[in-house]
């Protein structure tokens, strides 16, 4: 397997007022292999979106490194940065606000082509029509404006815009959260189809656990700025080991209770604590029924508890499945 992205001890802190520090991402490590989808899940405020934006260089990292094809993106010069933005793109959560309302669909999709000088004249026109077709829209749509489209269609325009400059890597930042449930699967299936056709690599960030399972090869679970569990999608959903992941997975509704083994729902009690000046120790301790004294002062690191399955919990062996 070839690594496309490597994130090492990534930190992104924000200053809040004069003395407070919000540790949105606090020492996260992972790799994304070429052609795979890495899912990132967790409740809102866990840092997954900040993580995606820092990986894209949209936020400068407070600490740590992000390597794209072996090169640290935070040390790029202007020219190299432009090349990186051609090879790596982001699709945003809100298809309503991420498209310029005064631009036609053709201009929205063509903008990146122009910035990077990829195609001109007739070739440019053809490329735009080809992209519309690729995402399931037709050529009559090219001269219309974003407000004339539904949420699902707008997200298709956003996908066409990202694909226009032929990237290798796309951060999909909650691409389906703002869409009707009936449309969500269509957009996810389109992303899967495009990945196969174009050999794309995705970082797929979402809080819909079923959709993440459907699209991802491997999944990381974030909690309050930390990665608490990381495994292949099948293993993580069938056999979660971290107490937080167990609770999260037990909340997924089972489509047909007769066919699948009935899972016991584990309640997730209490609110997610504030990421401002977090307490030392395991960040999940305040909500964890297995917490001991040691958990409140020693921060657990991610450990490989079985091949390709990483868990950050002091007591993972005692808790069992
Ligand atoms: Fe719970 Fe302790 Fe494990 Fe954290 S380290 S998840 S508090 S048992």
TrEMBL record:
<dbReference type="InterPro" id="IPR027417">
    <property type="entry name" value="P-loop_NTPase"/>
</dbReference>
<keyword id="KW-0067">ATP-binding</keyword>
<comment type="similarity">
    <text>Belongs to the ABC transporter superfamily.</text>
</comment>
<keyword id="KW-0547">Nucleotide-binding</keyword>
<dbReference type="Pfam" id="PF08352">
    <property type="entry name" value="oligo_HPY"/>
</dbReference>
<dbReference type="InterPro" id="IPR017871">
    <property type="entry name" value="ABC_transporter-like_CS"/>
</dbReference>
<dbReference type="Pfam" id="PF00005">
    <property type="entry name" value="ABC_tran"/>
</dbReference>
<dbReference type="GO" id="GO:0005524">
    <property type="term" value="F:ATP binding"/>
</dbReference>
<dbReference type="InterPro" id="IPR050319">
    <property type="entry name" value="ABC_transp_ATP-bind"/>
</dbReference>
<dbReference type="InterPro" id="IPR003439">
    <property type="entry name" value="ABC_transporter-like_ATP-bd"/>
</dbReference>
<feature type="domain" description="ABC transporter">
    <location>
        <begin position="5"/>
        <end position="249"/>
    </location>
</feature>
<dbReference type="InterPro" id="IPR003593">
    <property type="entry name" value="AAA+_ATPase"/>
</dbReference>
<protein>
    <submittedName>
        <fullName>ATP-binding cassette domain-containing protein</fullName>
    </submittedName>
</protein>
<keyword id="KW-0813">Transport</keyword>
<dbReference type="InterPro" id="IPR013563">
    <property type="entry name" value="Oligopep_ABC_C"/>
</dbReference>
């Amino acid at each position: 397997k070839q690594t496309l992205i490597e994130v090492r001890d990534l930190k992104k802190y924000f200053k809040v007022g004069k003395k407070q520090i919000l540790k949105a991402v606090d020492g996260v490590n992972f790799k994304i292999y070429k052609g795979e989808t890495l899912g990132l899940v967790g409740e809102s405020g866990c840092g997954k979106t900040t993580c995606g934006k820092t990986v894209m260089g949209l936020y400068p990292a407070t600490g740590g490194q992000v390597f794209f094809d072996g090169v640290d993106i935070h040390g790029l010069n202007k020219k190299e940065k432009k090349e990186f933005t051609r090879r790596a793109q982001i699709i945003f959560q809100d298809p309503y606000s991420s498209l310029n309302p005064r631009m036609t669909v053709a201009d929205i999709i063509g903008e990146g082509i122009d910035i990077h000088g990829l195609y001109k004249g007739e070739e440019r026109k053809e490329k735009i029509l080809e992209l519309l077709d690729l995402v399931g829209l037709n050529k009559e749509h090219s001269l219309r404006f974003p407000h004339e489209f539904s949420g699902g269609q707008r997200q298709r325009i956003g996908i066409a815009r990202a694909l226009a400059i032929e990237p290798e890597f796309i951060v999909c930042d909650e691409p389906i959260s703002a869409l009707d449930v009936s449309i969500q699967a269509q957009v996810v299936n389109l992303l899967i189809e495009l990945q196969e056709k174009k050999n794309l690599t995705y970082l797929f960030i979402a809080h819909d656990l079923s959709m993440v399972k459907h699209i991802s090869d491997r999944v990381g679970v974030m909690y309050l700025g930390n990665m608490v569990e990381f495994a292949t999608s099948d293993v993580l959903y069938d056999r979660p080991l971290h107490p937080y992941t167990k609770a999260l997975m037990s909340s997924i509704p089972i489509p047909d209770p007769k066919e699948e083994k009935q899972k016991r729902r584990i309640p997730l009690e209490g609110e997610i604590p504030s990421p401002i000046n977090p307490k030392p120790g395991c960040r999940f301790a305040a909500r964890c029924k297995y917490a001991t004294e040691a958990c409140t002062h020693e921060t657990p690191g991610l450990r490989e508890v079985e091949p390709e399955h990483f868990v950050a919990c002091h007591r993972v062996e005692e808790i069992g499945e």
